[in-house]
Design a protein that fits this description.
The complex is a heterodimer.
Chain A (H helix, E strand, L loop, with lengths): L1 H9 L24 E5 L5 E6 L3 H20 L2 H17 L1 H12 L3 H21 L3 H5 L1 E2 L6 E9 L2 E5 L7 H12 L3 E5 L6 H10 L9 E4 L3 H10 L5 E3 L7 H11 L5 E3 L13 H4 L2 E9 L11
Parallel strand pairs in A: 5-6, 5-8, 6-7, 8-9
Antiparallel strand pairs in A: 1-2, 3-4, 4-10
Chain B lengths: L38 E2 L1 E3 L2 E3 L6 E5 L6 E6 L3 H20 L2 H17 L1 H12 L3 H22 L17 E5 L5 H14 L3 E5 L6 H12 L7 E3 L4 H9 L5 E5 L2 H11 L5 E5 L5 E4 L5 H13 L11 E5 H15 L20 H16 L3 E3 L15 E4 L6 H4 L6 E7 L2 H9 L6 E5 L3 H10 L4 E4 L18 E2 L15
Parallel strand pairs in B: 1-5, 6-7, 6-9, 7-8, 9-10, 11-12, 11-16, 12-15, 14-15, 16-17
Antiparallel strand pairs in B: 2-3, 4-5, 10-18, 13-14
Helix pairs in contact in B: 1-7, 2-4, 3-4, 4-5, 9-10
Classes of the chains: A alpha/beta, B alpha/beta.
Protein name (chain B): Aldehyde dehydrogenase (Acceptor)
Keywords (chain B): Oxidoreductase
InterPro entries (chain B): Ald_DH/histidinol_DH (IPR016161), Ald_DH_C (IPR016163), Ald_DH_CS_CYS (IPR016160), Ald_DH_N (IPR016162), Aldehyde_DH_dom (IPR015590)
Chain lengths: ~300, ~500
């Protein structure tokens, strides 16, 4: 009996997953109906990923814009709890991501595990930043007059992110988490060659209490989707991390971004395994300074 | 002035009689969500044990005088053992990467959230405070505090204390009974985040939530010796503070004991932070939103039965609106429900101990003897337990003891003023400097008065607001050092 069932198990055909985009908290296929073949590092077929169109990009921007008021208006504490929840959910699906990252990046199981662990810890790192960045980059300004004067950081709005091409998962998490930690919403273009871990991350985000539209994930041809986002007039900022090996595209995108003066974070060589600083957060923050009269006699007269 | 219209004051609306159609039916929280053991030990090096000399003490529910549990009473030998355990644990705990320490603290924060209903009931039972407060204030703040400092553990280089600030070593921490678990969180979270290990002594009347916290440390897998809990009396606190193996002393409690501790550590290298008493002024200007101000006044002095170091225990009200404010205040006080802390409708619970009740009673009697006018709404107090009706003193002068001394109970002293300068003068006329409140619709007045107040926390058009990101602490004899926010890290760093 047991022999039979073991045999039956050995021949069981696995169920493939249809990878889909993540837009507005839902999982649509590309409106264009197009897919492209994704292979592992050795060229073996892994899946057909959606090939996003310009329309998909515009839909994603409008979903991100819609989510911005709620997400930027949430307390920093609440955002921290949700980012931490992402780490909790990822930890539970660690095996899945170790496999997907290993296949996508041609890593051994132990190396892929190290990458996934670092990605989980990166969510924890940024979860802790949500309610601390204001005290690090903001503060009271001692103006020469009887005025209260306080500068506070605020999120800039919708940020389009071209995710790193090589580091398909840790790199992706490292560019998305800092954008949303401070209250921005994001439209992310995944690694073109290795989009699957990113698309699976959408499934994690969807079950982490993250409001729909805060992160929108598009797979496809970087050169097709990124220019639409760079030129989109309802996008406030642009992270060019994934164009580090394509200086011509980076320049083209930065030029397009100038039309509405998007804040642009230029591509640079980054060791994604190293502890990040605050740069990827501050790149997408505005500083708001509030003045208010503090009346006369502002100094305290009595020693006691 | 306040006396002139006295006869025209409307009678406060009486509370509906019990049994009337408009009375509140009891809405008791279930006691069964918490399982209190008949006895507890000291928590040293990850294990519960008896005191070296075998002494124990009883902890009672202040609302019923029922004995809740029998707890081991730490003495000098136990303090020594706990400090050694903390010292031993320090080497590996401080050597952990900050990101790993962070994850322990995140675990603790999450477990506190998960067990918050149980802990809220426990805290209400052991302390006497209303379940509404433990459920809606204490426990959410405890979890948030751990969550907040967890995030700092791997970000200390960004906190403004140099590129690699070092922990101090073993922190000896002594906390009061008014917010037992919250004060524990304020002490332990920043200490662990920065890499210190801890020996904490909870107050003798409220040891239970700290002992439950020991169990949370177990669930979180916290390494042995990183947190040690020593229930006991003042002698254990004194031994801890004086112990040569302690590098950092943090104390929250009375100003008198704070001064003793300052003398004890004088001449040594122990870093000291103190969060002591207060006599907060709540200043109501004539352009204040009166209804909102009345709510703030009530919250300021009757939150936690007034057993709050930052309580707004002196109401300074501008003469022109004094009658209006007092009338509204008395009406509001008449609707406060005093009684069973586990009833979800209760506004005011029990006083924490017979000793504290005696102190409040004595000071209130002194207020009357010195000529202030005493008023309380009609309210029936339970027969068992320690209770004190919400009380107002009017006609109070700055010389009266009820205006000068911290009562630490539900007793509000009302003074009047005519000009903002006079308000500031009176507000600052105290050796304390912890908190103050300002009620006015005029923004520039808020800021100018706030600038002139010698107080560590100033609330404008609100009162008793707390947040882990916001530094809290006093000027003058209310102590020194800040807890909360980026500033709160400094107390536990070698800077």
């Amino acid at each position: 009996m047991s022999d039979k069932s073991e045999k039956a198990e050995a021949v069981r055909l696995s169920v493939f997953k249809t990878y889909k985009l993540f837009v507005g908290g839902k999982f649509p296929r590309s409106e264009s109906g197009r897919v492209y073949e994704v292979t592992d590092a050795k060229g073996k077929w892994l899946a057909n990923a959606p090939q996003s169109s310009r329309k998909d990009a515009r839909d994603a921007v409008s979903a991100a814009r819609k989510a911005f008021a709620g997400w930027s208006g949430a307390t920093a504490y609440n955002r921290g709890q949700i980012l931490y929840r992402v780490a909790e959910m990822l930890e539970g699906r660690r095996e899945q991501f170790v496999r997907e990252v290993g296949e996508a990046e041609g890593l051994s199981k132990s190396k892929a595990a190290a990458v996934v662990d670092a990605a989980i810890d990166r969510w924890v790192w940024y979860a802790g930043w949500t309610d601390k960045i204001a005290q690090v980059v903001g503060g009271a300004n001692p103006v020469a007059g009887p005025y209260f004067n306080l500068s506070s950081p605020e999120p800039t709005g919708v940020v389009a992110v071209v995710a790193p091409q090589e580091s398909s998962f840790l790199g992706l998490v490292s560019v998305v988490a800092p954008v949303i930690a401070t209250g921005n919403t994001a439209v992310v273009v995944t690694s073109e060659r290795a989009p699957l871990p990113a698309l699976s991350l959408g499934e994690v985000l969807a079950t982490s209490d993250l409001p729909g539209g805060v992160v929108n994930i598009l797979s496809g041809r970087t050169s097709e989707v990124a220019p639409t986002l760079a030129a989109h007039m309802d996008v406030n900022a642009l992270d060019l991390a994934g164009t580090v090996d394509d200086a011509a595209l980076a320049k083209e995108l930065e030029i397009a971004a100038a039309d509405n003066l998007k804040r642009v974070l230029r591509p640079q060589a980054v060791d994604w395994a190293a502890e990040p600083g605050t740069d990827r957060m501050t790149a997408f923050l505005e500083t708001k300074t509030v003045w208010h009269p503090a009346g006369a006699g502002a100094a305290s007269g009595s020693a006691y | 002035m306040t006396q002139t219209k006295k006869n025209q004051q409307p009678q406060p609306a009486a509370q509906p009689k019990p049994g009337s159609a408009f009375a509140y039916a009891p809405a008791p929280e279930s006691r069964s969500v918490v399982d209190i053991a008949p006895s507890y030990g000291l928590f040293i090096d990850g294990e519960f044990s008896d005191a070296a000399d075998g002494r124990v003490f009883k902890t009672v529910s202040p609302s019923s005088e029922e004995v809740l549990s029998e707890v081991a009473q730490a003495g000098e030998a136990d303090v020594d053992r706990a400090v050694r355990a903390a010292r031993k644990a320090f080497a590996s705990w401080s050597a952990l990467p900050g990101s790993e320490r962070a994850k322990y603290l995140f675990r603790i924060a999450r477990i506190v959230q998960e067990r918050s209903r149980e802990l809220a009931v426990l805290e209400s039972l052991d302390n006497g405070k209303p379940i509404r407060e433990t459920r809606d204030a204490d426990l959410p703040l405890v979890a948030a505090h751990f969550f907040y400092y967890a995030g700092w553990a791997d970000k200390l280089a960004h906190a403004g204390f140099g590129p690699a600030p070092r922990p101090l070593g073993v922190a000896g921490q002594v906390i009061p009974w008014n917010f037992p678990l919250l004060m524990l969180a304020w002490k332990i979270a920043p200490a662990l985040a920065t890499g210190n290990t801890v020996v904490l002594k909870p107050a003798e009347t409220t040891p239970l939530s700290a002992l439950f916290f020991a169990d949370i440390c177990r669930q979180a897998g916290l390494p042995k010796g990183v947190v040690n809990i020593l229930p006991g009396y003042g002698d254990a606190g004194a031994a801890l503070v004086a112990h040569e193996g302690v590098d950092k002393v943090a104390f929250t409690g009375s100003t008198a004991v704070g001064k003793q501790i300052a003398r004890t550590v004088a001449g040594g290298s122990k870093k000291l932070t103190l969060e002591l008493g207060g006599k907060g002024a709540n200043i109501v200007f004539d352009d204040a939103p009166i209804d909102q101000a009345v709510e703030g006044i009530v919250n300021g002095i009757f939150f936690n039965q007034g057993q709050v170091c930052c309580a707004g225990s002196r109401l300074l009200v501008q003469e022109s609106v004094a009658d209006e404010v007092l009338d509204a205040l008395k009406r509001r006080l008449s609707t406060l429900r005093v009684g069973d802390p586990l009833d979800k409708n209760t506004d005011i619970g029990a006083i924490n101990s017979a000793e504290q009740l005696a102190r409040i009673t004595a000071l209130a009697e002194a207020g009357e003897a010195e000529g202030a006018e005493r008023w309380s709404p009609a309210c029936e107090l339970p027969s068992a337990g320690y209770w004190f009706a919400p009380t107002l003193f009017t006609g109070v002068t700055q010389a009266h003891r009820v205006a000068r001394e911290e009562i630490f109970g539900p007793v509000l002293s009302v003074l009047t003023f005519r000009t903002p300068a006079e308000a500031v003068e009176k507000a600052n006329n105290t050796p304390y400097g912890l908190s103050a409140g300002i009620w006015t619709e005029k923004g520039s007045r808020i800021l100018s008065v706030a600038n002139q107040l010698r107080a560590g926390v100033v609330w404008a058009n609100t009162f008793n607001k707390f947040d882990p990101t916001s530094p809290f602490g006093g000027y003058k004899e209310s102590g020194f050092g800040r807890e909360g926010g980026r500033h709160g890290l400094e107390a536990y760093l070698d800077v």
